[in-house]
């Protein structure tokens, strides 16, 4: 099982834009309205922190590989190598480069109309990291950090995310 996790602040930011672009989902007039809903577990797919907490009990199993979105953005070649090794797949240098190029956010975005039709432009917005800094107030940032610590701060997944997001930033 490959478990891909992401900075909860960027998850919230991304989901805010996604929700407002998808008519079947609730939309929010302001970021502040969305933030309250996100933090009070009023999301259609539940609470991201609870999701991470549930996965944490499986994180040490040998058939589970956890990788962060931030790791893949920082070093996609190493990320693909590690994923291939985890699944027992050997790749030539040419195959490795092809996977890295074809799985890049920009490549997927460029092909999104072909692969995802009309939803392509909604699913592939920016693909960056730390976009949360454009929306979060200082108070919201502190609330999110507190919720992170309460739910997953000392766990394996929490430690991995904290390292990738805070220590490498």
From TrEMBL:
Q: Which domain of life is it from?
A: Eukaryota
Q: Which GO terms describe its molecular function?
A: sulfotransferase activity
The EC number of this protein is: 2.8.2.-
Asked whether the keyword Transferase is assigned, the reply is yes
Family, according to the entry, reads as follows: Belongs to the sulfotransferase 1 family.
Please tell me whether the keyword Transferase is annotated for this protein: yes
Check the record and name the InterPro entries matching this protein. Answer: P-loop_NTPase (IPR027417), Sulfotransferase_dom (IPR000863)
Q: What's the name of the protein?
A: Sulfotransferase
Species source reads: Fulmarus glacialis (Northern fulmar)
Name the Gene3D superfamilies on file: P-loop containing nucleotide triphosphate hydrolases
Question: What sequence ranges are listed for the domain Sulfotransferase?
Answer: 1-155
Q: Which key words are in the record?
A: Transferase
């Amino acid at each position: 099982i490959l478990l891909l996790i992401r900075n909860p602040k960027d998850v919230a930011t991304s989901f805010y834009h996604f929700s407002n672009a998808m008519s079947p989902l609730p939309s929010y007039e302001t970021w502040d309205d969305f933030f309250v809903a996100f933090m009070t577990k009023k999301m259609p797919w539940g609470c991201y922190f609870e999701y991470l907490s549930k996965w944490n009990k499986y994180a040490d199993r040998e058939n589970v590989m956890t990788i962060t979105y931030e790791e893949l953005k920082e070093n996609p070649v190493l990320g693909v190598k590690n994923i291939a090794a985890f699944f027992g797949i050997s790749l030539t240098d040419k195959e490795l480069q092809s996977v890295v190029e074809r799985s890049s956010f920009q490549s997927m975005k460029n092909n999104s109309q072909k692969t995802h039709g009309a939803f392509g432009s909604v699913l592939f917005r920016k693909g960056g990291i730390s976009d949360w800094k454009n929306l979060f107030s200082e108070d919201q940032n502190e609330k999110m950090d507190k919720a992170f610590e309460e739910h997953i701060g000392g766990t394996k997944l929490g430690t991995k995310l904290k390292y990738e997001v805070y220590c490498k930033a």
